[in-house]
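Intended use. Records like the one below are meant for learning the mapping from a protein sequence to its folded structure. Do not use them to infer anything beyond what is encoded.
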Amino acid sequence: METKEKELQGLQKTMSLPDFWKKNQDEVSRVNQEASILKDEVDGWNKFYHEAEDNRILAQMAYDENDESSLKEIQNDVIALEENIKKLEFQSLLSGPDDKSNAIVSINAGAGGTEAQDWVEMLFRMYLRWCESRNLETAVIDYLAGEEAGVKSLTFTVNGPYAYGYLKSEHGIHRMVRISPFDASGRRHTSFASVSVIPEVNTDIDIKIEEKDLRIDTFRASGPGGQHVNKTSSAIRITHLPTNIVVQSQNERSQHRNKDTAMKVLKARLYDLEKGKQDQKKQEVHQNQKEIAWGSQIRSYVFNPYRLVKDHRTNEEVGNLERVMDGDINMFIDAYLRMNIQKRTAKA
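Structure written out for the chain above:
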């Protein structure tokens, strides 16, 4: 906690400088958000520390006076305090350099045809519900509908404290097994979708992009909004020629704003690619994700013949499939973060 207090003091000192508010608005917002997150953490730990001390003193007094009624009250307070500390402890698992960042999430249909495209839409709904439960803001920036049903691919942003830190656990192949509503014979199908999660790049990270390395195309938006879809050619597709990375944005109503959004996503992906070169584990994850099919899944969602969700990395299992599909994925996130902490501790 001492380290976090020093971090907070450093940010507050930066924010008190006369020229701070003249900086780029994105940079100001980032520092503000980071300082707010740290202040909540420090205040939370200090508050719980003092509550624990108060309960310890009161418990000793009640014990000395043989006051069973007061001891029971203190016990209830301690149980509630333990729950609050667990929540803060969970947040303390997020210590990576990008964990506080906003997230950019892409979901793509893999093997399974229309069934896989329906699976993309189901996963998207699951993540939206989870984001709502944590008061995180979401915005769809690219959307390609399926030919018969569902969604072929989509990209959306998640803005809020630790969005990337939480959602990085979802990066990988997600497998669904069910009796397909699109199969007249009522056969069981296995479908796959890939989920890619990258951190939104902070404005103080220098990602050099040359204009000559870009191909920019415009097209008409084709999102899910019906009357909200812009009928003019305001959507933007940017191809980064050296890496062949393609990004799109069609959520905004002007070419200029769509270009800004697409460039933000491109910078994030180039940053993630560069980090991947330096991080062998992350590089292997991306290589494994090239084939969205059998054998590479991180999690399976079985609707039939039984109902079960299992994470193959942590062996975390949940039988309440409906709860998971309604956005309750915290148990998987928690298990993944704790697994990573254990791995780092074992290597230390």
